[in-house]
Amino acid sequence: MIENHQNEIAPLPRQYSAKEKLLLPISLLVAILFDRLIVAGLYGTLNSWVLTGAFWLCYIVIFHVFFWSRLKQDKTAWFVAVCTAALCIWFLISPEQNWQFALITWFVIPNVLMAHSQWVAGGYTLKNSDGIAAAWFLGWFVKPFSGIFALFGAVGSLLSANNKSTAKRVLAGVGIASLLLLIVIPLLMGADQVFSHYLRQIFSIDNPFLTFMHIIVVLIAFGLFYSFLWNIGFGEAKRHVVQSKKTIDDIISAIVLGSVILVYVLFCVIQFTYLFAGVGLPAGMTYSEYAREGFAQTVIVCAINLLIFGVFLRFGKQHKLLMAMLCGLLATTGIMLVSGAVRLNLYIGVFGMTWLRLLSAWFIIYLAVVIALCVIRLLFKKQLPVIALSALFLLLWYVALGYLNPDNFIAWYNYDFFIR
């Protein structure tokens, strides 16, 4: 009995494009810059703020060059990139102006660039703010790891016997040999003091263990950056869309919004009586104390109100009663914001300007713009992407705060204040 065996054709290995291979040296360059400017800058003698700005500025340039075909006509992406680059330049030219702003900016830049990269990867529009938020989360916790196999595949394609280019094969060999030597040599220096002495003399290596640790940082960062950038450029082009189902019941909406607005109306009556009209305060209370106890809480409540507005506008059933209650919520929020501004002005008038008071004033102006956008969205233009526009304006307003030179402004204001 003769058995016929069908010849099984082995699947062809995945072919990696030239751009995926080009991403290897680019990711290695970003990793080296990360080690030299961010990691080394944390304990080096140079100003770490300056090095941080230099790294992210280099990253922005490299990112835009590599993804130029996607970015060249994306106005929103360019707006975000220019604002973030302005923050990087602020680090380069004036990091000592205000350490509080510098510390906040140290966290702001990478988070903004993460949102920027996910915008580029998914091809979003301003109306997909919820999808961008989901992609932002994946960008931090999934994409730096999910493309590691692509890294191994791209490296393997350079070593493949099918790769006929002698130049590429030589380059791959030199690269692998360099990485191995960078790992082995510091270990040998630690094993033999004479060997270490001569290499230190030749290459001016002061601390072999520290050198070894920097090599490890570069290798880890290389893998993470390649995986992250590969996902942006070559991963599955999928938008993360959050389905918006109208799930909030009418009765729940009426009870929640009605209760909140009722409390806010009572609060606003107090503001018109004691704050705006100047009616005498209760015995033993001064206006400076009255202002001090209120402006921060008032501003926070206004921000919460805008969040409530967004939730009910998106998930509530659209009818006249809901629209009327949302109008009432915006109206009372506007009055409360004015109350916060008046309180802050009273407090500054007594005690002068500080960093936190300047930041509060800056945030009050921002919230006023957001309220205006909400009013336009509710009454005039239903398709206005309020969340995205608010986020873009927040970035622009934050950049403006840095270039205001907060410390100099505070000093000028207080000097003029005490002269008066």
Low-confidence stretches: 5-10
Largest sheet: none
Bin the helical content: over 70%
Q: How many helical stretches? A: 18
| Secondary structure category | mainly alpha
Rg, alpha carbons: 29 Å
What oligomeric assembly is this protein in? single chain
Percent of sequence in beta strands: under 5%
Walk me through this protein's architecture.
It is a single chain. With 420 residues, this protein is mainly alpha-helical. The radius of gyration is 29 Å and the shape is globular. Helix content is 77%, strand content 0%. The model is unreliable at 5-10 (pLDDT under 50).
Quick structural summary:
Helix content is 77%, strand content 0%.
Record the SSE blueprint.
Blueprint: H1 18-39, H2 48-66, H3 68-71, H4 75-93, H5 99-122, H6 129-141, H7 143-146, H8 148-159, H9 166-191, H10 193-203, H11 208-234, H12 250-276, H13 287-292, H14 295-315, H15 320-351, H16 355-379, H17 386-403, H18 406-419
